[in-house]
């Protein structure tokens, strides 16, 4: 007896009331294949009525496909991390076996943001790879970086990259560096851009550029002359070209961990892995 179905294939959900018992069996099997979805699928397998079976089947079919895709993304990420870690380094070997690093792995895969985009999956891979090989940032800081991957959009990260590559850049300079066309100040694009700058400022990733003394203490800005009486102070543009921005120390470390890809230490062929899985 041969089994022609591939391990990654989705189970065919039966149609109509006669297939009710078989549907439950298939879903219960899927519960074991996808442990974190077990409770949901097991409950759903016995909850629907015959009249709604077809709709439920379709919904669960798409749900299982989504969960399987997520598992494949996680497997791919784990393999790519492994290929970038120097297993011959004793310190790295001890690091990846430590409870602290294991906690980072659990957090990253529990709060999985890789499904949002391939770029976010790569950021997570880079953070976990660098966290195994580097000791620049503490584990508390690395956990914060993982939170940022969840909390911020890809446009946030493009802005972070623009500031890093041109320290002292203005908001107008950032907008132009992103290749965006001029827009009205009262447009939704302008509002979104101001929100992103505010997010990065309040989040401790970027700040207005300020001078420091030899001890790294910030030098207070000189107060500007008060506006003449009767004059109206102009509202600052979302694309202001006067105030300069730079990354904070946290922002610089985020660039190192999330946007720096370690070279491969082991030969890794994702096509061979996909072929073996099928």
Compose a concise summary of this entry:
This protein is mainly α and 278 residues long.
Protein described:
This protein has helices spanning 20-33, 38-45, 53-84, 90-97, 99-110, 118-133, 139-151, 154-165, 171-177, 188-202, 249-258, 270-277; strands spanning 169-170, 206-208, 244-247. The two termini are 19 Å apart. The protein is built from twelve helices and three strands, in the order ααααααααβααββαα. Among the domains are: 17-70; 154-220 and 236-257, Arc Repressor Mutant, subunit A, CATH 1.10.10. It is flat. The protein has a three-stranded antiparallel sheet with strand order 1-3-2. The longest helix is centred in the first third of the chain and has 32 residues, at 53-84. The model is unreliable at 1-8 and 16-34 (pLDDT under 50). The protein is mainly alpha-helical and 278 residues long.
Topology at a glance:
Layout: H1 20-33, H2 38-45, H3 53-84, H4 90-97, H5 99-110, H6 118-133, H7 139-151, H8 154-165, E1 169-170, H9 171-177, H10 188-202, E2 206-208, E3 244-247, H11 249-258, H12 270-277
Antiparallel strand pairs: 1-3, 2-3
Helix pairs in contact: 1-2, 3-6, 5-6, 5-7, 6-7, 6-11, 8-10
